[in-house]
Amino acid sequence: MYSDKDIDRILDVADIYDVAKEFLTLKPAKANYVCCCPVHNERTPSFTITPSKNMFHCFGCGISGNVISFLTKVQGMTFPEAIKWLSNRYGIVVEEDKPESEQDRQERIKLDIMRAAIANAMSFYYDNLFNNADKVAAVKGVRDYIDKRWGLDFAQSENIGYAPAAWDALYKWAKEKGHPIDIFIELGLLVRKGDRIFDFFRNRVMIPIKDRTGRPIAFTARALDDDGPKYLNSKESQLYKKGESIFGIQNALRQAAKEELFYLVEGAPDVMRLHSLRVYNTVASLGTAWTQEQRNQLRRVNARLCFIPDSDKIKQGEQYGAGIAAVMKNGLAAMLDGFNVTVKEIPGDAGEKNDPDSFITTRTILNELEEQDFIIWYTRKLADGKDTAIEKTEIIKTIAGILAKVPDKIKNDFYIKQLIKILGGTQNLWKTAINEAVRKNVENSAKSGSRLLDQELYQKYGFYERHHCYYSMDDKGQDKEWSNFIMVPLFHIKDDLNPKRLYKLINNEGENCIVEMKMEDLCSVLKFKIKVGGKGNFVWAAKDEQLTKLQRFLFGTTESATEIKQLGWNYDGFFAFGNGAFYQGIWYPVDEYGIVRLPGLGNYYLPGASTIYKQSRELFQFERRFIHTNYSTISLRSYT
Questions:
Q1: Whole-angstrom Cα distance, residue 283 to residue 288?
Q2: Domain 100-240 carries which CATH code?
């Protein structure tokens, strides 16, 4: 199995036109390239390469995909052969196949079956709309609807189809073709009730939801009547997780990287409208809220996020329409997550709903929408209708609280000049409000024991955290990376001769581990690099001066514990086993770090029970045998 990371690296650099021209004779056609399809016989070229999407599609037989699937579907390579061919062509080093466990093999086989089932269902829906002459004639009204909204060529390139109104059209087809009915049920395409099995999607336009590589993983379906909700999404499965999937991502990444910009809209129709206008760097979350996992996927491209909210009718008792309220929440989360965020707002029309799908019918209309920096737009929304000094003061405090979490001093100075025009005040007033917000954050952090925020870290220690890395700023205000990981202080193990500290390391790819460090490990860059590097992909790139600053921060935020060196009775008044301790007749087990917390006495460290030494075959063997199982009905006191 090749890792998703290696596949993503290949998709980032491999060019569909560059690869396809090695095998096919392509002719330019506007922004695309065409030729006769190599998969089916035809005289008029309908096989199309679209460089801006890095995808191919045949308008004759419906075959489509990315650069990897071009090699597998069109050239007949196996998946491993395609990966090796592309990695060799573009000089990308990928890890060779690793031996699979039986469990991994079974999981992979099932995922392959599920992917095939989704792809087969997509073909069924597509054929209903485009390939079967009798069926196509019967759904002329559906085709007219799709043609009016997005155009038939675009619908074909995106594999859009139609689910018939019959209760069992897909079920009969799948049964006739010998497809696995239970898998179709698990994917939510079919529904079983008692002895009956019927289609979940009926009389709907079927829009595939695809993953990063362009493979279908689910559907969002548009109703053609008033029976049920207007849009209905597939249920979650092993292939499709709503909070991890991004609609349109398969087309968006290349153009987003080129323009350093993503447009974020609310729903699939909005994405399809902009994609049909060749604005491929448009995506949607298929839900109201953008999750951290989805933002992490967008972070792969160094791009700003431009939200285009729906202009909804404002409900009674609410200050904003649903679309504006959602962007205020999601934009703020993205900004505090380190993104550059802007907003293009669609003008309202007499309180009626307006969205990108209905309003942005040309690229000119999109370009003419004013693009505002998020914090300025957000402030204007908060200030709308607020005229009193008290109201404006509260808004200033709110905005200052946000700016206190932005480590870029130059950007904050720019914001202040713009905010003065909206809310008034002076630069000194705004800076005082920001400093006050920072002070409160520090106090709250100290009270709760939570970690310091980025701005506070920078002011006190000269660095800040972003995406599980440590950074400082150079003389030009540019980020200077110290490490590809952060350290979460866990415990200071007190000892007169051999004090230690426990930390959790988390790198920018989510890898984490627990590490035990002696004092000398944190006082020498060389020893520190060896210690953290020995745990995995944890790289320290800064010098002694920066390590000292990090040490000051880590030492000031660590709980303490005392190592238990002798099991059995302890003079502090408890009886220690290798996996916990009895204190005043009550059993207290250790946690994953090897810490047992005894009320009134403090924290104690049992290293043999820590995950740090879990894999060690030499250390703490006796301690792992001298444990309390908590199975016996006889108390320790009675036994002794």
A1: 13
A2: 3.90.980.10
- As its CATH architecture, domain 249-373 has 3-Layer(aba) Sandwich (3.40)
User: Of the CATH numbers 3.30.360.10, 3.90.580.10, 2.130.10.10, 3.40.50.2000, which one belongs to the domain with range 1-97?
Assistant: 3.90.580.10
CA–CA separation, 221 and 168 (whole Å): 17
Instruction: Provide the pLDDT for residue 452.
Output: 45
pLDDT tens-digit readout, 430-459: 888 888 887 776 556 544 444 444 555 666
Long-range contacts of 296-302 (CB under 8 A, 24+ apart): 297/212, 297/244, 297/246, 297/249, 298/246, 298/256, 298/262, 298/339, 299/338, 299/339, 299/467, 300/8, 300/253, 301/253, 301/256, 301/257, 301/260, 301/262, 302/257, 302/260
With H, G, I as helix, E, B as strand and everything else as coil, classify residue 502.
strand
Residue 402, C-beta contacts closer than 8 angstroms, at least 6 positions apart = 332, 335, 336, 375
Whether 469 contacts 481, CB under 8 Å:
yes
Q: At 476, is the pLDDT very low, low, confident or very high (cuts 50, 70, 90)?
A: low
517: β partners: 501
In the chain, what's the furthest Cα-to-Cα distance? 93
| Closest C-alpha to 635, from 589, 599, 582, 592 | 582
Q: In which band, very low, low, confident or very high, does the pLDDT at 427 lie, cut at 50, 70 and 90?
A: confident
pTM for this entry: 0.64
